[in-house]
Amino acid sequence: MLPPRGAFRERHCLHFIVFDTELAHDILRVWDGPADSAILLKEWSGSALPEDIHSTFNSLTLQFDSDFFISKSGFSVQFSSR
What we know:
Layout: E1 12-20, E2 27-32, E3 39-44, E4 53-54, E5 61-65, E6 74-81
Protein name: CUB domain-containing protein
Keywords: Disulfide bond, Repeat
Pfam families: CUB (PF00431)
């Protein structure tokens, strides 16, 4: 997630509405920056609702890895900038 042009000082927030993935097999990772070489903020798996994530930079990188065996409802996240 990259900010709009000219918004280089904005910080971002992810607010999770739903989180239900297969524990240890479906994993969401969030990095504090524009690539997966940035600081890994958190990774989640299972059904516990994650706390809000706040960036310290002007971008976040999300990666979701899943297998094909057990299907859960997934996740829903609200994105905001400030």
